[in-house]
Design brief:
Two copies of one chain form a homodimer.
Chain A lengths: L1 E6 L6 H9 L10 E3 L3 E7 L6 H4 L2 E7 L2 E9 L4 E6 L5 E9 L8 E7 L9 E4 L3 E4 L4 E2 L3 E3 L8 H14 L3 E5 L17 E3 L5 E6 L1 H16 L3 E7 L12 H15 L5 E6 L9 H14 L6 E2 L17 E4 L6 H8 L3 E5 L3 E2 L10 H13 L3 E2 L3 E2 L8 H4 L7 H15 L4 E2 L10 E5 L2 E5 L7 E4 L8 E7 L4 E4 L8 E4 L6 E7 L2
Parallel strand pairs in A: 2-8, 12-13, 13-16, 16-17, 17-18, 19-20, 20-22, 21-23
Antiparallel strand pairs in A: 1-3, 3-6, 4-5, 4-7, 5-6, 7-8, 9-10, 10-11, 14-15, 24-25, 25-26, 26-31, 27-30, 28-29, 28-31
Helix pairs in contact in A: 1-4, 5-6, 8-10
Chain lengths: 507, 507
């Protein structure tokens, strides 16, 4: 038995996603059309037993021209099985299912993949070693934030979070799959990922489809807002046992998650938050990441986030460096060491809590973000202001109280309007005093906690004419000097901190 | 022939030093008294020839009880030879001279070393591995500044510099022996260290006593102000050839300098500024430092200051780490690596010049100084504000225009009033977020660019009662909480940057 659902996932069309989230598998007629990088979904009826999660295997081979893509299906409870697929090429696609359950085996179907709609640039991929781009070639510059457990807070707060994200200026969200147990995070989640007995003990052999439907809805809603969902698969902050499952359960969970979520084009896989603070051997992380690489037919981005010990990001199953480190002037070292894009997801957060990773001034965080970006990497945001009801953005979402996010949005605008990737200028001393980057023919210097009254303009050796923008990274102003500069030149600067200079070709 | 001069070098008695500087060898009667760590000087008449500097050797053995100290004498021009000696023990001292010039050989004399006068604590020595103390046991916490070429600016400016130093709060000065040729430093010095021919070409075989008498006067004047003179023996910023002398001339210069200056109890030897930017092989620096160690009878402090390459300060002839590095939170790494006191003499300077080592905001420099000090090291000051006549403090002295020096004086006062050495608390992550140190039973945390609204007080496990001081490192205020704290406790903090907390035993 088969039900097919074409998920047209379009930016700004929230109603679609809400409908998707409710997910009653709507029967549709043949000749369906799915946009490129959208989701084709088919539903089938199959065995409805306690052990269906563990016993029933389901997959499908999707074919178009000379391409064959094998994807896993998943059991969604109450006898419903689904297969989700993201077509990455326009044209006709057909598929046939394979299953050890007779009802689910040998089902076939077809659909037409049509051009992507306006806001759909496809999934993000690594480009030019140290940077990212959408599949359609549009550059993607990550300006992310973190709300670890925002999907576990209930609809009211979760919808407020989405409303905040609509205008906050972020295009990536770090978020955990599992709920979180930690300071300021003692509330019980609405949904648990596994079925639970009367005493609340999880049955690791049975997933809770309600949990995942809710989770997928939120991932899709982020997608509508143009926000990549950097999904954290494991984390140590736990009181329910999810951080200490046996290996077999971990792998089952990963396979189920990949089967359900890999088709969402905004999904990234982050194996863990602070992986080294968990009670798992180092090589197990390698195996998890390899397993994901093997089972995700789309090759979504894969990373792992450190606590005290930095992972060897040069390992081949890692697509980009996800790092926790307060010193963003080390960005170019990490680029050189790992040869991959550097995303410093946690250079500590703006806030005022006692924990020393969560009480930066807004100025200090903005400073770190600029340093990392102009050094050719990307730096994430987080906010941890004390709140009477413990609603801290970093973990629960809600509204933003700080000042740094506005400056990050300003920097994102500056970077996106030039549209080119930043390569740091080489270091000639043991240390780096200013962040300075070259981006195509545009050049950047960020002075940070410095106040030069004047500066030599470097890098004009090509003797072409340049426009000079004097940027105030805190006041969020750009003043373009009226003169056009060539060759060696000296310019006056405002002599205050947060100054940056950008050069643009004048012709 | 012999003339003896007893130099009583007493703090605040400027007239004495001026008289010393004029240095006409005054004949005195026997039974002289010299205070402990003061200077006994004797003058002798000897050969007055072109080659006297090179040919005449002079030394003396000073004896007291079972001690024998051999010191070099030096030729001071016009037939005058001098021997300077700093007695480090009270009682009767006698001496006999040795020379290859008959006139100077076999002269003898005696004096009585009496207790040190009030402000005289003796020379500074390393104590407790990572710290310093005066010879009388008084702790010495270096809060230094840099005016590289201040002694080459002429009396008017040099006296203004001394006037500034009288109240600025510094107790160490980094200064070059040779004049300096560099940006903002193109003026010709008044004195050159060598005799020069009509064309201005230096004769490296003949010193210029006038130069050294002037230099010594300034060193003595710093001593009167309680300021250690960290003498930089070589530096690369030169147009006269002093940076590129042959080895033999370098060694002759070092021996002459040590003979003239080692007796001044406030002298420290810094082999070079940015040694690795000079055209000298690495092993030559080792040999210079060993040579100084061998010829300086008092074992004055010896260091060497890096440019791009950090010297191996674990070498035995190095007494303390002199480092140039902007990241003062690495202080504890250098302590561990070298096992010696860390003096970060150049974490870059407050100012607004284009050079990236010279345009920190005052806030940024103050921040770096606090971080380094609370991490168990010491951090130097420098100031480089553009000036219409290129009188920048960092090189020429004059007056201070900035804001950081006042905060350094404030921190010095705080550290001196506790009187105990700071040991950094161990690092538990890859990085250090706050500087935090333990000093005897007093404990410090410096929050820098952080704004916690509250903090847990750590380190009260001894369950003794503590007073808590809330310090504003920028506003220079100390607020002592009225409560007395024991065991685990949480305190409210002002939630603004530049906050520090100090705990003091309440009983």
């Amino acid at each position: 038995m088969r039900y097919r659902t074409t998920v047209k996932w379009m930016a700004g069309l929230a109603a679609v996603a809400v409908w998707l989230a409710c997910m009653p598998a709507a029967a549709q007629t043949a000749g369906e059309r799915v946009e490129r990088w959208g989701i084709y979904e088919t539903s089938l009826r199959g065995p409805d037993a306690e052990n269906s999660f563990a016993e029933v295997q389901l997959s499908a081979e999707f074919r178009s021209k000379d391409r064959v893509v094998k994807v896993d299906g998943f059991y969604d409870g109450e006898g419903a099985y689904r297969i989700r697929f993201m077509p990455d090429a326009e044209g006709e696609w057909t598929y046939v299912t394979r299953s050890n359950a007779k009802q689910l085996d040998g089902e076939s179907g077809r659909f037409t993949c049509v051009p992507a709609s306006g806001g759909n640039h496809g999934p993000v991929r690594v480009r030019n070693t140290f940077h990212f781009a959408y599949a359609d070639g549009t550059p993607y510059f990550p300006f992310g934030t973190t709300c670890y457990a925002w999907v576990h807070q209930g609809d009211e707060l979760e919808e407020r979070t989405l409303e905040t994200l609509r205008t906050a200026g972020f295009n990536k969200m770090r978020m955990t799959v599992f709920p979180k147990d930690y300071t300021y995070n003692r509330n019980e989640p609405l949904y648990h990922p596994f079925a639970r007995d009367a005493a609340g003990k999880p049955d690791l052999g049975r997933f809770n489809p309600e949990f995942f439907r809710h989770f997928e809805k939120r991932v899709a809603q982020l997608g509508e807002l143009g926000i990549e969902a950097d999904l954290i698969l494991f984390h140590p902050y736990d009181r329910w046992g999810y951080a200490r499952m046996d290996e077999a359960s971990d792998f089952r969970y990963l396979r189920y998650l990949v089967a359900r979520l890999a088709a969402y084009r905004n999904v990234w896989w982050s194996a863990a938050n602070e992986y080294d603070l968990m009670q798992k051997p180092e090589d197990l992380w390698d195996r998890y990441l390899k397993f994901i690489e093997e089972h995700d037919p789309y090759g979504r981005l894969r990373s792992i986030h450190n606590g005290r010990r930095i992972y060897d990001h040069s390992k081949p199953w890692i697509t980009h460096v996800s790092i926790q480190h307060p010193d963003t002037l080390q960005t170019m070292d990490w680029r050189e060491r790992f040869g991959k894009p550097v995303v410093n997801d946690e250079c500590q957060y703006e806030g005022n809590i006692p924990n020393d990773w969560g009480n930066l001034t807004a100025q200090e965080l903005v400073h770190r973000v600029w340093n990392g970006v102009i050094e050719g990497g990307y730096v994430g945001h987080g906010e941890t202001y004390l709140h009477p009801k413990d609603v801290l953005w970093w973990s629960k979402g809600g509204v933003l109280h700080g000042e740094s996010y506005k400056r990050m949005a300003f920097l994102r605008k500056l970077v996106e309007e030039t549209g080119e990737e930043i390569t740091p200028t080489p270091r000639t001393w043991l240390w780096r005093s200013n962040a300075s980057g070259v981006q195509g023919e545009r050049r950047w210097t960020y002075y940070g906690g410095r106040q030069p009254a004047k500066a030599k303009i470097a890098g004009l050796a090509d003797n072409k004419p340049y426009r000079v923008d004097i940027i105030d990274a805190w006041e969020m102003t750009v003043k373009t000097l009226s003169d056009v500069f060539r060759g060696e030149a000296e310019i006056a600067l405002p002599g205050k901190p947060f100054t940056a200079v950008r050069l643009r070709p004048a012709d």
